[in-house]
Amino acid sequence: MGKSDNTELTKKARELLRKQVDRKLAAALETCVRCGICAESCHYYVADPRPEHVPAYRAEKLRQIYRGLFDPIGRIAPGWVGAVPVSDQMLDSLVETSFASCTMCRRCTVNCPMGVDNALVVRAIRSLLTATGRAPEMLEQLAEAAIMREEGLEYIKDLFLEQIAELENELREKVGDLKARIPVEEQGAEILYVALSGAHTILPASVLFYATGTSWSLSLFEAANYGVFLGDTPRAKRITQRIVDEATRLGVKEVVVSECGHAYTTLRWEAPNWFGKPFPFRVRSLVEVMAEWIEKGKLKLDPTRNRLAVTYHDSCNLARNSGLIEEPRTILNACVTDFREMTPNKQHNYCCGGGAGLVALPEFSEQRLNAGKPKVKQIKATGASIVAASCDNCRHQLGELNEHYEMGVEVIGLAELVVNALVLDKGRVPGKEPVVAATV
Amino acid sequence: MSTVETSAAIAAIVGAVVAVVGCAWHVRWMFSLPFKGDVATAKGSASKGVMYAYTLGMAPWEKESTRRHMVGYLRGVLFHVGIFAALVVFVASPWATVIWPSVRLLLAAVACLGGIAGLLGLAARFGEHNLRAISTKDDYFAVALVSLFVLTSALAVLSPSAVPVFYVVSAVTLVYLPFGKVRHCVYFFFSRFAFGVFFGHRGVIEGARSQ
Questions:
Q1: Model ipTM?
Q2: Nearest-CA residue of chain B relative to A49?
């Protein structure tokens, strides 16, 4: 790499960082005293205790660049404060650090005496890498695919509607009512339900919407937002825009996001800030809606239909980053007979290792499965046969951990457990076959 | 006052001015950066979150990390209490002779313990594999310098003859403050504030959660 190239890269990195450094990121970059107390809060470190897995070590990588670009001492005496010049090699080494060794779960943040937001730092690294063409290709492709779906909607809409019609037949069979529907583009519906690419995120919710007589419409788009994983806010905003437009066009009062951690966090917390104003509709997770139905007595549930011991994995995005802590417990206490908490749990729970887009990156599957060890230990300690999870990425990861570490458990979503326990009017129960995952 | 004493006192005053101006610069810089308030509808209270962040959230039993590393955490607390004692000594030093002996003794004891805690922290930084991997030269120097500042304050409060030495060490420490890691004393408040707003607004902190 020639000197001129490095100068160009330095200039670009400075520009990109300058755009990103706001008060929150500056606080995260400046406050860390490198006490190392965060080490054991990270599932990577617990699984494989080496310095590279200490959260402060990862964040330090961006600080090294930051000091070299913005700190006067870093410019005069880089070795003194550990400033490092920007180079291709340096940025290349950050790919694994930020995309494969951190799920931005913020467990280290809640455990930091200074409250340093390492997730914000790692996101800034991802953003830098994406802008310099270093992001994992798969994430790039998935983000682009989401944008292309919107652009080519008229071509794929018919196929989508055909698939939904098939699912609708399954729904009718399941609830024993030929009038049961999966409405799409329903003008004036109260709820726009945004699912993921899988029947398992549509069918159970459809059964519950049917059972509660809810006015709803299924979104044409998926809730997943790979722009967020890339740290690419403009792209993430564009992907979100599709849902915002659809919700506005249909005039819904509420957008309900499927059981998906990052999709919920994105639409509920991040996106309004990108648009600079609150949305004209409420955003809730299906988990919140189910908990409300149960509290208001809208769902008749028979917990004896879920007799096996169930434990619950708190998604980092839903619990630690969104405060959905009691809602899943309201649901589980109503629909299973033997609910067992993991230790630790709620906002203190360990990340499963599948977040921040990692389940979509086969090149890092070894690191991901290794990082799941603390979760495996937690699950085994409960002695439960079923692991409930309200995030699709977590479910995917837990499923793989189950196979890899031969845990012998079943991984299931909360909505599926609720449907299993559901008693429809006149004592009917939905079709006996459990709802299984299938791709739409 | 001898020339040495006068020079040391002037150096200390210059150091204090540099520290105050430097900290003010950092604060001003932070306020010049964009800060977007969260427009997403709250699930909890950001203000209660901030209250928590500055109070109970700092308690050692509140975090798994500090429960696990209680000795290290208390060592850090002791070090910082020692720093505050040293600052009190620095400000009160012109009137040291009129301070009650019992108060002087207390300040010396606290500073002494704080200084020792600082040195133990330094030893840990040298000795622990993880800490070595994440430390910069600034980290070692800053902890050593501040420990020395705290220890010399203990001497100064007990013996007036040690005051010039304390002033010189103070001058170096205070001049260095805005440039090295010690400046976290400014950023700490911003970081805890952001922590409180984030987790309070989102209803993660139990006491800040909406009913």
A1: 0.94
A2: B130
